[in-house]
Design goal:
The complex is a heterodimer of chains A (180) and B (254). Chain A is of the alpha/beta class. Chain A is 26% helix and 20% strand. Chain A has two domains: 97 residues, Fe-S cluster assembly (FSCA) (GMP Synthetase, Chain A, domain 3, 2-Layer Sandwich), CATH 3.30.300.130; 57 residues, no CATH class. Chain A is elongated, with a radius of gyration of 17 Å. Chain B has one domain: Ferritin, core subunit, four-helix bundle (Ferritin, Up-down Bundle). In chain B, helix 4 crosses helix 6 and helix 4 packs antiparallel against helix 8. The longest helix of chain B is centred in the first third of the chain and has 29 residues. The two termini of chain B are 36 Å apart. The chains are: A alpha/beta (180), B mainly alpha (254).
Chain lengths: 180, 254
Amino acid sequence: MRASGIVQDNAVWLKRLTHRKQSQHPEIWAILDEVKDPEIPVVSIWDLGILCDVSLESGQYIISITPTYSGCPAMDTISADVTAALNAANIDKVVVNMQLAPAWTTDSLSPLGSRQLLEYGIASPQNKVGGCALTPEVGIRCPRCGSEQTERISEFGSTACKALFKCANCLEPFDYFKQI
Amino acid sequence: MNETAKQTTLDYTLRLADDSLVLGHRLTEWTSNGPFLEEDIALSNVALDYIGRARMYYAYAAELSADGKTEDDFAYLRDERAFRNLLINELPRGDFAYSMVRQLFIDVFNSMYLPKLMQSNDKTLAAIAAKGIKETQYHLRRSRDWTLRLGDGTDESHRRMQKAIDSLWGYTHELFELDELEQQLVVQGIAVDSTKLKAGWLTHVEGILAEATLKRPEDDWAVRGGRSGYHTENLGHLLTQMQFIHRSHPGCKW
C-alpha cells in the first residue's frame, strides 16, 4: 500500500499541535487520546481535529469540541464519551463545550489520523492527486491497492464527511473523506 | 448586548433557523424515496446539513432568550404563525425536478448570503455561516449538475424542470426583501442585506438555466409573507408531522 503523499505539516494542524503542547493540562489531553470517533473507531477525536481545547476554570475542566459537519450526529455521543473517559480517571467536574469557530477543516487532521484513515480503508484528502478544492471526479488514490485509476460514484457517502469512489484496478468501492 | 438588540438578534436568528429546519425537513421526505440509492443518500446528507445548521441557530436563539428555553422548544413547540421561514422552503417536495430546482435556487442564494453573514458583527452567526458555506459549495455543485443533466436531458426531464422553474419562480422574490427588523439589523452590521444579492443571483441562475436549455420565467407574480408568519397551507401539515412525537410525549427523553 502506498501511503506517500500525506502532507505532514499543514498550517492548521501545526497550530493545533502547538496549542496542545502549550497546554497546562497534558494529562487531560492524554486521557482524551483514548476517545475515538464513534463512526471511525480507529481514529481519536484529537487526530480527527474534533478536540480543540482543554481548560480549567474554578476546579472544572472545560473540554471544547467542534463538529466536522453542521449536522454531525456523532456530537452527542462524543460528548458523552469525553465525560465518561474523564470520569473513569476520577475527574468528575467536566463540562463539554461545543465550539463553532474556527470551522473544522480537513486540514485539522493529524498526519497519524490521515494514515489511520487510510489503513482503515478511507482515503483522506491529504493523499489526493491534483488541487481541486471540492471532491474530484477521478484520481483519489485507492486506500487498498494504491491505484490512482479511480472514479467518483457519489459526492455524498455513508456519512456527511465522506464521498464514495470505485477503484478501476482492484474494483473495490471505498470511502473518501472529503475536503472542506 | 442590550435587551432590544438581544431580542432583534434572537428574532433574526430564528428566521434563519426556521429556513434551515423547514427545508431540511422537506429534504428528509426523500429518505428511502430517492430515485436510486446514491441519490437517496445524497439528499439525506443535504437534509442533515440543514438540520444541523438549524440546531446551531436554535441553540444560539436559546442562549439569547436566556429563559430556560432549549432548541427543541423552538423547533417543536411553536405553531405555524410563529414560524418565520421564507415560503419557498415549505412547499411540498414535488417530483425530483421540483426538489432540485428549489435546491438550485436556494444553493445559489446561500452561496452569496453566507459569505456576507460570515462578516456579521455577531460572532456566533458568523461562525455558523463559516461552517455552512463549506457545505453549500457541495450542495450547489450537485444541484447545478442535476439542473444541467435534467434540463438538457430527455423531453420529459426538460418538461418537468421547466414546469418546476415556472411554479417556483414567484417564490424567489421574497428571498431578496427586507422588513423593518432586518433593515435595522443591516444598519447594525448583524444581518445580511439580501436586496443587494438579487442582481448577482439572477446572473448566476440565468447562466445555469441557459446552459441547461431552460427558460427564465417572467416576473409576473410573487408570493410573500413568510417573514411575518403568513404561510401557505403546506407549513401546517409539515408541522403536524414534524412535531407530533414531541408533542404527544411532553418532556420525554431517551
